[in-house]
Amino acid sequence: MVLPSRQPVHARHRHxxxxxxxxxxxxxxxxxxxxxxxxxxxxLAAPAAxxxxxxxxxxxxxxRDGPGLLLAEILRDDSPQIAAVLQGIVALDADLLLxxxxxxxxxLVALSAxxxxxxxxxxxxxxxxxxxxNTGVPTGLDLDRNGRxxxxxxxxxxxxxxxxxxxxxxxxxxIRAEAAVDHTGFLWADxxxxxxxxxxTEAERAxxxxxxxxxxxxxxxxxxxxxxxxxxxxxxxPVFDGPEDRNGRRNHDEAAFWLRLLDGALPSPAPxxxxxxxxxxxxxxxxxxxxxxxxxxxxxxxRLQDPAPRGxxxxxxxxxxxxxxxxxxLYPQGPGGLRVDYVLPSAGLTVSGAGVLxxxxxxxxxxxxxxxxxxxxxxxxxxxx
Length: 385
Fold this sequence. Notes:
385 residues; 7 helices; endonuclease; five-stranded mixed sheet; 15 strands; Deoxyribonuclease I, Chain A
């Protein structure tokens, strides 16, 4: 599809001001964990008319087989997949972009290198945010019951190394890292109404975190000085387990977490509106495997809007019950097209457009995006007063 023309929020940031990255360590997140935020000097001018904020999420498949490999590939500048990701981000032209499926390192070196290449391509993102995910973090327990410790499935979230397949926020608006709240350490057993596996031991209940990857919220500063809270997550696929349905249950509860937070049922206070919930839920509300009650409840909650972004991947799937125009990922050798990626603004925000970036097959961008990932970028435009 063709992205609509708009007056983007970041347009006012391009009046001769050079955005020079100035790495600095931000104040700690309220969980006590440190976060690195890269910021630039931005000249803010008053808007002459209503602005559009484009918010997007994309599982861009930026995870590799070991630590440091993603950074090396970005720096080599010879990877067709990295080049395709860069072209996709430039075409998307989002003001806020949550990347999922990107390897994490402590100082965000790989993310910074990716952003440097985006700047060179004419799409600067001077603000970046990420926190350490649960992927690859040892539990010290034999969670997969195979008699060995330290396997990828024994980690807090599946991972062959710490930080595998995390998530990160790229922003053209200032990020208030000092006000971020990290829920990544929240214990699964502490979730009200948790669907814990029937074979879960007391030792596992005491250490197993809910988040496969992350659950965090971070405010960004809008042009009028107010804040928009970005709430991001990347859930486990609801498959690759046994009859105990550990992953299916966890996937359900990773979506249900946000409803409990909005209900005020968790130790952390509910975020104040306006906010946007986005990321890869790894679950289609109609087709494929998984316990759909959690994601359906999110989509139906009156505190959230579902703009139902639409695109078209061109594949015919008569066995599917859901609308294929809502699909955000395509697994040709598996379940086919599924809606698994979401951007859900809070109820009071004005949505002026939404879509899934599935270009026609005649558009060169279609092959570019297919080279990048099985997922397509999902975007929502918000009109600011």
